[in-house]
Amino acid sequence: MEEKYKKTTSTDMATLTIHGKSYELPIYGGSTGPDVIDIRTLYRDTGMFTFDPGFTSTASCESAITYIDGDKGELLYRGYPIDQLAEKSDFLEVAYLLLNGELPNTQQDKEFKNAITYHTMVHEQLNRFFGGFRRDAHPMAIMCGVVGAMSSFYHDSTDINDPEQRRVASNRLIAKLPTIAAMTYKYSIGQPFVYPRNDLNYAEYFLYMTFGVPNCEDYKVNKTLADAMDKIFILHADHEQNASTSTVRLAGSSGANPFACIAAGIASLWGPAHGGANEACLKMLSEIGSVENIPKYIDKAKDKNDPFRLMGFGHRVYKNFDPRAKVLQQAAHDVLEELGVQDPLLDVAKELERIALEDPYFIEKKLYPNVDFYSGIILKAMGFPTEMFTVLFALARTVGWISQWGEMITDPTQKIGRPRQLFIGETERNYIDIKNR
Ligand code: SDX
């Protein structure tokens, strides 16, 4: 944690009264956002735990990386609004910003992009892991396995106490995730893996490794697609202490190496309630199929007895709009227009959004389109199969995960994460021989 960022130790105290006895708990403020009540002494002083399944009211750490204001629909990376970064920056510049806290100058930008470019190849033996997977394996299953296996190749960057090894591991992960992601796609369609090209930028060489077929034909970079890809990566790069980031932090708090921690984050992101929602959302739009069917699905989403949810809607933090969804809605329109793609699913998505935002249920529960609502439509138009959508999310979020991991490792107050529980099971009882059961 960089010295210049500190919580404010306010004089305010929170008073908690339990069974007639009062306890004083310190209140801290940050640079913006909700203040916190420090409850670290609560169990020692009261013998009681707090209870917060899903951590709806719990700050797990101090962080200076990403700030979200759910009511304003605001998302800041190191203080910079996401819409400005999406419009003016590029993904590796944003990666530098998230990792280091400041936008790079020209020299720093050049050096960082060089460092990433010259780490994009993977160890040739890592290719052999793919052969153990079925061709129809979900690419996220392969990502969990192959990224975790990186720790069996890069032993010279697994000492988490060595700043230089942490830097190299971060660069390796940021550089090699696109290569591995492209390999999962190539493996699924039975095409040969494609080596990266150092003359292309990050989004360009990812698209080249994914869709290029070298020796058979020359690959022409489509600037519109590469720019859209880069923008999608920026929008997905980080998002405060979401489920997968919290997974990475918890794994890292035990001292696990960064490759294993990122593999844990990939596993958590896969869930349809989280990063898997983009895949689930496109499948839902395909199932709805036409504008005429929307009311039926809106009713299903509102039916308490029906587990169906509108995928791509709702968010734990955003209770207004998700700023990323607004940027992606425009990008979806631009990419489809540029490609001359008429996708009826975009019409279904827009009409679904319009109807939902006028429906009292969604208004009352503050359910708005989130980052996953439009991303699938763009990715489908770009040629990605639905199963690859969450892989792309993981590729981009690796930058946020490794930035948050680095912040945790260097936070002098960090301890191994070890929550407690409210036990509701059987109390002590004696063993019964099977003949007496
Ligand atoms: C991501 O945390 C992050 O930052 C995540 C993320 C990131 O960048 O890392 O932003 C990425 O994960 C985006 C979210 C992608 N998930 C989906 O689109 C899946 C569909 N959405 C829901 O599953 C849900 O909205 C969550 C998981 C996103 C949020 O769940 P919460 O905060 O735990 O809210 P909840 O489940 O308690 O819902 C509150 C109410 C409930 O009704 P009641 O029990 O109060 O009557 O709203 C209802 C829910 O039933 N509700 C929905 C709904 N989402 C919530 N009803 C219909 N459709 C939905 N999508």
Q: How would you describe the overall organization of this protein?
A:
Helices cover 48% and strands 7% of the residues. It is built from 17 helices and 6 strands. The strands form 2 sheets. The chain has a 3-stranded antiparallel β-sheet with strand order 1-2-3. The site of s-citryldethia Coenzyme A has 22 residues, from helix 16. The site of s-citryldethia Coenzyme A (SDX) has 22 residues, from helix 16.
Short description:
The protein is mainly alpha-helical. It is 48% helix and 7% strand. S-citryldethia Coenzyme A is lined by residues 54, 239, 242, 273-275, 277, 301, 309-317, 365, 367, 370-372.
List keywords for this structure.
single chain, 437 residues, mainly alpha, three-stranded antiparallel β-sheet, binds s-citryldethia Coenzyme A
The major pleated sheet works out as:
3 strands, antiparallel
Q: Please tell me how large the radius of gyration is.
A: 23 Å
Gross geometry: globular
Oligomer: single chain
> What is the straight-line distance between the termini?
57 Å
Number of helices: 17
Strand order of the largest sheet: 1-2-3
Cofactors and ligands: s-citryldethia Coenzyme A
Tell me the number of strands. Answer: 6
Mean pLDDT: 94
Give the DSSP E fraction (strand runs of 2 or more residues): 5-15%
Helix-strand pattern: EEEHEEEHHHHHHHHHHHHHHHH
**Structural class of the secondary structure composition?**
mainly alpha
Uncertain regions: pLDDT < 50 for 5+ in a row? none
Helix content: 40-55%
